[in-house]
Amino acid sequence: MNEFLRKKWEMAGLADDYIFNKVMLDYDICLEVLRQILPNLHIKKIKLPNNQQEFAVAPDAKAVRFDIYTTDEQGNHYDIEMQVADHHNIAKRIRYYQTASSMEAYDKGQPYEQADDSYVIFFCNFDPFQLGQQRYVLHKHIDEIPEQIIEDGQTDILFNVPSLRHDVDPKMQAFLDMIAQREVEATDSLVVKLKERIAVVKRNRKWRPEYMRRSVYEMDQEMREKKIREGERRIRDGKREILEGKRELLEGKRELQKSKHEIKEGQDRLKEKEQLIQEREQKLHENQQTIIKTSIEAMRALNIDKTTIKKEIKEKFDLSDKEIKDYFAE
Q1: 194: which residues sit within 8 A by CB, 6+ positions away?
Q2: Res 280: pLDDT
Q3: pTM of the predicted model, to two decimals?
Q4: Phi-psi region of 310 (alpha: psi -120 to 50; beta: other; left: phi over 0)
């Protein structure tokens, strides 16, 4: 574990949020980065950057901890964040960070129009909106008139660090390249400052063990969260299987009921056919009786003797002795 953490510390660059925070605590670097991001503000000076500053919108609300937080001489508020992993919640995350930052922009008793402006800046090691842009600047606008921006003093800026579009100022591009650990011009003044600051951070005897303790905590936390997610996934899968089982059982019951209904209909049809056959057999029997009786009467009218009549009727209609006896007993 120690060897792993040692190598992790040695390899860590600006894309690591701990290193990023320690580097951005440098006054000159933070000021220069803000000037590159927002050149139109002409920022002259800022308050000493503060890292891991925590704000809570309400006592019972989720607290937010800024990576780097500062203000300038005009009262503008800046929150600078390094977002390493894509948790697919960037829009809601920005919204909450902006809410916390904006709360600091309103002084008690101050008119709304005098509220300070608030800037939330995210450096993302992924494309935050999967739209291929290198930089995303977000403002509110009117849906019916998209080009009409609402000047509410809130601005969100997100950088897609892996992007190679080079749509930003060269100095800003150099900063993004440093985060992405791409090759950069060693003569660039910001690059020189960044490299020197990273070296200072890496030599700091306090920050190295702090980094390792934090890494162990984060790995443990990640493992716990992974187990929680796995447990939640299993619960969801179990619920889905139960619902699927219930659905299959319900379908089975419906199929069984349908089969029972079809069997009953088949039995009813069979009974109807049996009854029809019986009726036909009865009709045939009655017809045969009528024909036999008519034949006997006809042969009697011709004065044919009884023995001959019996013999003739028995052979012609394939009757038993008992049936012959019954006809002549009538």
Answers
A1: 14, 23, 29, 175, 178
A2: 86
A3: 0.66
A4: alpha
